[in-house]
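Data card: per-record layout.
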Amino acid sequence: MNVAGITLEELLADNEASTKKWQTWFAANPAALDVPCDIYNSGTVRGLLKHIWAVELRHSQRLRGEEVIAYDAIPVGSLDDLVVVHAKAMQNLKDFLAEADDAGMREVITLQTVSAGTLHASRRKLFAHILLHSMRHWAQLSTELREAGYKTEWPKDFLFSEVMR
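The structure for this 165-residue chain is written out next.
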């Protein structure tokens, strides 16, 4: 049986569309960036955004075989500073997909993580992890913000994505 799957390109497009909604929302609700947040010991929502987008950037650099920026070198200042990190990661991921072949996707690489030490994963698995990691944290963040009195008014489940019908 041949079953059509969801492609990495489709998941990447969903990640990008979802992140744009969050960027717009944070631009309209800048005080929410400083809401206390204990997800991944981030301290504040701003710190969690840094974590989400730093993971995207650092892993995207690994996928492309580039030097990986130090976590502490990633700015945590303004929303615009953080958005630049995400934009670099998205470009890296698009470039990687445009160049990757099946063998490259199956290649197992070694990566040094901030929290889990040395890991080994295929490039395909690492790519999927980047997107799932972001999704998971956006879901946590939605709850954290709602509990702090900040509501977001759009559906966030993949089912509501404009990427696929």
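Known properties of this structure: Residues 8-150 form a domain with the Four Helix Bundle (Hemerythrin (Met), subunit A) fold (CATH 1.20.120.450). Residues 123-147 form the longest helix (25 residues).

See the next section for split statistics.
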